[in-house]
Amino acid sequence: TQYVYRFGGGVSDGGQGDKNLLGGKGANLDGMAAIGLPVPPGFTISTPVCALYYDEGESFPDSLKTEVATGVAHIEGITAKKFGDPADPLLVSVRSGARVSMPGMMDTVLNLGLNDATVVGLAQISGDDRFAWDSYRRFIQMYSDVVLGLDHDRFEEALEIAKEDNGFSLDTELSASHWQKLVAEYKAIVQELWGKPFPQDVHDQLWGAIGAVFGSWQSERAKVYRRLNDIPGDWGTAVNVQAMVFGNMGETSATGVAFTRDPAKGDNAYYGEFLINAQGEDVVAGIRTPQYLTRAAREAAGAKPLSMEEAMPEVYAQLASVFETLETHYRDMQDIEFTVERGKLWMLQTRSGKRTAKAALKIAVDMANEGLITQEEAILRVDPMALDQLLHPTLDPKAVRDVLTKGLPASPGAASGYAVFDSDTAEKRAAAGDSVILVRVETSPEDIHGMHAARGILTARGGMTSHAAVVARGMGRPCVSGAGTLAIVAKEKLFRVGGREVREGDTITIDGTTGEVMFGAVPTVQPELSGDFGTLMLWADAKRRLKVRANAETPLDCRTAREFGAEGIGLCRTEHMFFEQSRITAVRQMILASDEAGRRAALDKLLPEQRSDFVEIFEVMAGLPCTIRLLDPPLHEFLPHEEAEFEEVAKAADIDVDTLRRRAAELHEFNPMLGHRGCRLGVTYPEIYEMQARAIFEAAIEVAERSGAAPIPEVMIPLVATRRELELMKIVVDKAAQAVFAEKGRTVEYLVGTMIELPRAALRAGEIAEVGEFFSFGTNDLTQTTLGVSRDDAARFLTTYVEKGIYARDPFVSLDVEGVGELISIAAERGRATRPDIKLGICGEHGGDPASIAFCEAIGLDYVSASPYRVPIARLAAAQAAL
Ligand code: ADP
Ligand code: MG
Ligand code: MG
């Protein structure tokens, strides 16, 4: 097998640029070279080598040595330089690149090939001593950090001291001799920390770097990122070795990053930053404040330093034409890294750009309208989960704001929370249920867990393409970056700004759309659901087959659900209605009653309350199907648990406290999840379900009479295992219906069906469908009962299970298609065999999970039901599944 693929100088071994084989970076370097763009020559060691490296105890396959030598020869041939040649040395970068980009996870080594001899040659051949020694110190610093794993603070300290000693504030002020002196200091630090001199053999350097790239695949940071993003551990990373081009060769040289469209708002305008006389990492690390790419952006920001369009008009024009070529070629917004060496443009990377949900929507809709992509592609381009960002509130424009300062609007959306100053605290407080805003001078990959736990991120340093900004946009967290006036004292857990002090635990608000940072919590408003969002949803609705309903049990939830496009209620739980203060007493009297007459007396009090609940819900949902689940939880959930409460409850329910205690003890269950709950309540106390059914039908008729549009109640019996259970309950419901219809002289359409949430019910679905008119797959319980895993106790071991690949994803989040899914398929098939028009839906948490929705589409269910905020996600996912 071939391990090494060359690119550049008219060669493109990768053919069509296979990302799985070459990684994203390698495939696109190959792709750009193939369409004739200026790419420094190089080669890619393919991703399967990464797995081989680990399989063989962190060593390389035999033939790799010769293949790499061929790759180096390829670069030497094109550049007419020799690797390790003291007269005219070839320098390379060693870059990682997995199938999907993992920002900041894998480290790049630049300027590899420099040593005490080649640095002299480089100085001579370039005629620029300063450049040569700057490159060498960069190389030692990076190599020591990334490959040797030495403490990078020591190197930065040395640099800071060098600047201070000379009274400089910028790296660019240091001259050749300063750098030369620093190189000597760096080498001494390496000797001290590593116990050996800095490697002088360029081949040792190269193999060390290649090993380090593979090594970084198993770093903690990379593992965390993979876990958060569902990236399999066996994909591996590729290694790209590429001739260096130099952005640090003086004033006609530069380096930059750019997007072909605005990644925050989605506008069709170039967007980016560049730095003159700098190397790649400088822009991302926020060492100097980068300059704008376009004149328009510079003017809009009121910034002074010239934009690239103004400072280097010719190279800029060439870059702009490359943008157009790339967008047309890849048919997507591109995120580009480039370098200018003495006036010549070089392309170093392109990939589909990460973008906010807002930008994803706008770009997809715009590109479809421009004819660059089809409407179907536009639908497929937007990640349904990303819509979440758009559906959440933004700051109320009318609210009073106590603005502390303003930074860059790095990732849109607003968030309030306690200020915290380190990622571990952010994670801890978030786990305890607090909203937190992570405040850092700047973030690094070590902050991933804190950023994930935080509602929002605020940094004092770094531009729009800084680590914080890129990662926050990817995660959908609001972020304000580069708020330069913040004086953060992380050690004391506070920041100062404008004479004020904000300490850990104080509430602050950030607006990632405007860049504002405010003291206190600022009220928010609901998002705008028209515009591009509306357009894409319309396109999606035209393509999907699955209906989308909502899990909703309050009028507010129902209204939200309808605004988001729900086509009915898939699950209205009724137990929450019983917990209200005004009702709980009657519920308890019902539970504590010693006979049926006593229970009925209490239920009579609950009937009007329950009816009014349904009236409100049916008014919102008039004309639409509403699945209402009759009482499900074990009765003891309604009784007090704390000794302190018994007195009070006994008094309110008008019984003596000993009876209450005895009854509570009687109702105690060892395993309530499998105990006296669901239809077992209805079987033992039919009058409870009778009251609920009556409330449903009375409410339906009331709403039909008032508004003319009757809802279609679908009465759902929970936790059925056998045909007979459902049959008994259906008799109760039908009888209540007949009674109400006779009293009111009016009927409404309704169905009686069941939740399929026990394996037995799924298997016996054929006979259960003789009675049930619909099935709703209650996949939360069905997952618990099929896997034998308690949802409430699973947290302790499920993470490990997912890490070890036992389940690919948390089965309570994404359906276990192989196991639970097979039961659903069986039930659907057997149910339909008995009753061809049986209505089939899913109402577990999984109804809002795109992967699970794809499964529901594949087996032809009629609808999915999701929580209100997930309805648009489900609509889009359903359309994607249908395409
Ligand atoms: P990341 O995946 O973190 O973006 P890259 O491999 O893209 O890492 O490298 C980061 C930066 O290093 C690039 O944006 C580029 O500016 C610089 N770089 C990488 N390779 C070269 C090269 N051959 N010549 C000049 N600069 C390079
Ligand atoms: Mg990097
Ligand atoms: Mg890059």
From TrEMBL:
Q: Which ranges carry the PEP-utilising enzyme C-terminal domain?
A: 530-881
Needed cofactors:
Mg(2+)
Q: What is its EC number?
A: 2.7.9.1
Q: Which residues form the signal peptide?
A: none
Positions with a binding annotation for Mg(2+): E757, D781
Alphabetical keyword list? ATP-binding, Kinase, Magnesium, Metal-binding, Nucleotide-binding, Pyruvate, Transferase
List the PROSITE patterns hit by this protein, alphabetically: PEP_ENZYMES_2, PEP_ENZYMES_PHOS_SITE
Its Gene Ontology molecular function terms? ATP binding; kinase activity; metal ion binding; pyruvate, phosphate dikinase activity
Which Pfam families does the UniProt record give?
Answer: PEP-utilizers, PEP-utilizers_C, PPDK_N
| Reactions that this protein is recorded to catalyse | pyruvate + phosphate + ATP = phosphoenolpyruvate + AMP + diphosphate + H(+)
| Active site location | H467 (tele-phosphohistidine intermediate), C843 (proton donor)
Q: Which residues bind substrate?
A: R573, R629, E757, G778, T779, N780, D781
Pinpoint the PEP-utilising enzyme mobile domain residues: 435-515
Domain of life from the UniProt record: Bacteria
Q: Which InterPro entries match?
A: ATP_grasp_subdomain_1, PEP-util_enz_mobile_dom, PEP_util_AS, PEP_util_C, PEP_util_CS, Phosphohistidine_dom_sf, PPDK_AMP/ATP-bd, Pyruvate_phosphate_dikinase
Task: Using the record's annotation, list all stretches that form the Pyruvate phosphate dikinase AMP/ATP-binding domain.
Answer: 64-369
- Quote the SUPFAM superfamilies the UniProt record gives: Glutathione synthetase ATP-binding domain-like, Phosphoenolpyruvate/pyruvate domain, Phosphohistidine domain
Give the family per the record.
Answer: Belongs to the PEP-utilizing enzyme family.
Q: What does this protein do?
A: Catalyzes the reversible phosphorylation of pyruvate and phosphate.
What is the name of this protein? Pyruvate, phosphate dikinase
The organism is: Sphingomonas gei
